[in-house]
């Protein structure tokens, strides 16, 4: 993991955030900007609540049949001349992108806003390979200049004031006239536009995320207001889409349902400015567009969340409404959460992705006021899922230390079938990666008390429980 | 098949407790893709044509686009000339090979019209929309020689011509037309839904137009 999580220091982070005057000033804009706009947009559409049900059902149905939708989607991508690369974890995803960059001799890589790119630490890997990654979303560009990660999933620089952005531009854009006036929001945006326009035209590879992948047609969908994602994917020779497995939806019509709740929940717009559906590379008679179209389909821990109570988190469409309405987020901002995903969605997702040992404080970053769930467009029961993590942490600490370290943890898990499935599923994945060729482990995060005294054999294949489920799920033969 | 592919699909199946070979699941998935059901369609856009076009214009203006209506295709060049003049823009225009755009009487104006994709040096771009959506004031544009996608994003000012009869009530009606044109399960390389000019609110949540795409979006609705 290239982004080192500071989630274990959540309490310290939060204290620092509360004393940071620039941050507190900037966070005032979250409270003001987002809540009223979402409410007005929801109010203006009588079918909004019915669309939320529809959005929830689409995502839930897709998750329950994810294997089949991925296969159908892959066939269509290939038929349209695109390429699909599977990545089990962050390292494989980075390698897939770098392989493509090396093969085409890329020097500059432009990037549309993508949270999964942050999750896998792609920029650091691109730099380490001697290439130049250029973030092109205005907010992402600003946080890249500052060497930070986004503090919000749709407004990456929401933690900053205009004065801070001006200072950053003066520090980095030293080729421009030092006496220029960039004191207004407009002039700052115009300066970034000018600088990034040159980068767009010079880039060899463009990397975007995806809001949705459509099984019916093999299409990837991006939603932006700036148009940066479009310039990123249109102008370079190669377009690489990074997408995690839960982005699948069955049909174009399903995209229509989700779009109606996405922008309204995010920014209070009825539609974002640009919704772009891309299918494969340039066609024979196309005058523009990329010669190559690739999708790196990333798991990185998600497949093990399926079939557990945390499965519902995979319905998330990354609208940001839960953090926009969260009193804790309003107080401490996104960076206090210590990794990529802040707010209520981060408090549930982060422990699942990087481990509850590292991110166990996050589910406590809640007042359980329930506002997040009340605005979530896909109706994820965020407070309930945070409570699941809390119970798990709480009981872990109730155990005597020696027992807690080893078999006690297992015993506790084993009495909770769903958690046990999650933990063993996650551990199975983590272990098969960590164990490499050796097949044994000298130390394990979850079973320290055990491995202090003996090596643990690396798991092979499926857990007993999932094998049992497999068998039961097979169609019964007619008698 | 790659090892990673097998692992990812294998873990998904283990977690879901399925094999991927269950006939009922396969039928359900195939059936759902084949049916492409529309879901919940807001009543807002379900209007007869005059009211539908009026709603489109109202919604497009609410998204910060400007809208003009003309009675026939022959009037488009005059309206485009007026737009350029009123905004102090140079009398140049870049468009694709779209036959309807090419057939318009540009000779009656002083506009210098050239054809082809944009290389980033064009101030004004002209496109013809495949369709539009009244519900949200959204344009739908498809890639290809007729209307190169680069014209939607690189020029500072984007002028889009749309026929009133191509204004649909909702996205689903447009998707249906895309299916009719390209075939079920097949898409143009790019389908752009565009709702207003480019913008960002990334600095202090203050909305500024013209982030990376066009600063102005001008829509000309042709009524005939
Ligand atoms: S959890 Fe819900 S509200 Fe939060 S980002 Fe995801 S979809 Fe939006």
TrEMBL record, chain A:
UniProt-recorded name of the protein: Iron-sulfur cluster-binding protein
The organism's superkingdom is given as: Bacteria
Print the keywords alphabetically.
4Fe-4S, Electron transport, Iron, Iron-sulfur, Metal-binding, Repeat, Transport
- Identify the NCBIfam families for this entry: LutB/LldF family L-lactate oxidation iron-sulfur protein
Q: Where is this region: Disordered?
A: 457-479
Record domain 4Fe-4S ferredoxin-type: where? 306-337
**Organism per entry:** Lichenibacterium ramalinae
- Pfam families found in the cross-reference section: Fer4_8, LUD_dom, LutB_C
Composition bias type Basic residues, residue spans: 469-479
Q: Mention one GO molecular function.
A: 4 iron, 4 sulfur cluster binding
From TrEMBL, chain B:
> Pfam families in the record, alphabetically?
LUD_dom
- Which domain of life, per UniProt? Bacteria
Q: Extract the signal peptide range.
A: none
Organism, by scientific name, is Lichenibacterium ramalinae
What protein name applies here? Lactate utilization protein
In this chain the LUD domain maps to 125-222
